[in-house]
Amino acid sequence: MAPPRTTRPRHLRTRALRATALAAAAVVLSGVLTSCGSAPAGSTTAAASTSTDGAFPVTVTNCGSKLTFTKPPTRAVSNDINTTEDMLALGVESHMVGDFGVNSDGPNGKAIPQQYQAAFQQVPTISPSYFTLEPLVGLRPDFLFAGWNYGLHTGTDLTPDGLAKYGIKTLALTESCAHVQSGTSSVSIDDTYQDLTNLGQIFGVRTKAQQLIDSMKTEVAAAQAKTAGQAPLRVFVYDSGQPAPFTAGGLAMPDALIQLGGGTNVFAGLKQSWTSVSWEQVAAADPQCIIINDYGTPSADQKQQFLETSPITKNLTAVKNRCFLTLAYDQLTPGPRNAEAVTAIARWLHPTAFGLPTTGA
């Protein structure tokens, strides 16, 4: 059974794979493998653009493994909103046959930002939940963009090696490689740039990828120029959880974004990605400001209300000063909205550097 909504962020909520479902899937999948050259009944092959920017074949290195492509994928699938936005930002929606885990009216719900709504409408949403084996393979994809604990899980068939048996080449979010590669010591917005570079090479849109990266770098540099010389403030990221808070450790993307915005993640010393801590640890760190990850239920307002009324958090410096910043899930996870998150954090932590009142942006 999947854990409750309040204990884990959406990309780490394990979708339990029932043994009976897997047994049934094995029968179905054996039939799928015999007809991989044709599209599923009632569907059409994606009308992918034939124009490419860059020579093929191309090889990218991802989580220590090499992936080679002789041509751009034509039946691509994404998992989660941030990976989907990476692909849409590069204009490869015509290469996609579906997405998983993007949007829902339920507890995992996440609003699609306006700048991507038109492109999202061109990609079929297969399920508001993360992918499982049978629905994914039923699409006959040739490419999956996901991440470790963003749909990929060790010890299951939902790994690059497991999915390769069905003709699927899998690219994992660079930030998520920390889950499967020992010795990772830090996270950086360069991880997001690497994802965009990889996608640019794989889909033959290198120029567009570089233009997006350059634009993001320019925005980040502008924020840093404003906050140069400012003393960093202590920041706690509150994703979810009341019995125990789920937060960003030193190997999760918010750690890098907070640093770039002129702050210090109070749990930067934890060499983990998203992880559970205790409220006693939060109290001991006494953050000066709190970022609330906004997605699904409870709402950001409800999370803030909890922090303001809980006996163990109501006396935190951040709570007493009402220093809260709500950011969307796809701003805090690796993706094209990371640069705007840096700007938002910088304006919030150091408003006077931007000519703003001390209440922030």
TrEMBL record:
Query: Do you know which Pfam families this protein is assigned to?
Result: Peripla_BP_2
Q: Which residue intervals define the domain Fe/B12 periplasmic-binding in the entry? A: 75-353
Q: Which residues form the signal peptide?
A: 1-41
Membrane-spanning parts: none
Top-level taxon of the source organism: Bacteria
Q: Which UniProt keywords apply?
A: Signal
Family to which the UniProt record says this protein belongs: Belongs to the bacterial solute-binding protein 8 family.
Check the record and name the PANTHER family matching this protein: IRON(III) DICITRATE-BINDING PROTEIN (PTHR30535:SF7), VITAMIN B12-BINDING PROTEIN (PTHR30535)
Its name, as the record gives it, is Iron complex transport system substrate-binding protein
